[in-house]
Amino acid sequence: MKMYIRSAASISAQKTFGDVPFLTDAVEYNDTRINAIEPDYRDYIDPKQVRRMSHVIKMGVAAAKECLKHAGIEMPGGIITGTAYGCLEDTITFLTRMIELEEEMLPPTAFIQSTHNTVAAQIALMLQCHQYNNTFVHKGVSFESALLDAMMLLNEQEADNILVGGIDEMTDVSFKILTRLGLYKRKPISNLSLFQTQSNGTIGGEGAAFFLLTDKSSANNLAELTGIKTFYKPKQQQDIEGNINDFLADNSLTIQDIDLIITGRNGDVKNDAVYNNLNNSLFKECSIANYKHLCGEYPTSIAFALWLASNMVKQGIVPDIVAEDVIKNQSPKKILIYNHYQNNYHSLMLISAC
Amino acid sequence: MSSSVYIAGVGVISAIGNNVAENLAAFELEKPGMAEITLIDTKLHGQVPVAEVKLNNEELAAMAGFSGQNSRTTLLSLIAAREALNDASIPDLSSLRSGFVSANTVGGMDKSEDFFIEFANDNNKGKLRYVFDHECGCMTETVADELGLTDYMATISTACSSSANAIFYGVRLIKNNILDVVVAGGADSLTKFTLNGFNTLMILDKERCKPFDENREGLNLGEGAGYIVLVSDKVAKTLIKSPYCKLSGYNNSNDAYHQTASSPDGTGSYMAMTGALAKSGLQPSDIDYINLHGTGTPNNDSAEGTAVKRLFEPDYPPMSSTKSFTGHTLGASGGVEAVFSVLAIKYGLIYPNLRFKTQMNELPFAPETRFLKDQRIKNVLSNSFGFGGNCTSLIFSAT
Question: Which residues touch B305 (CB under 8 Å, ≥6 apart)?
Answer without folding.
Answer: B212, B266, B360, B362, B363, B365
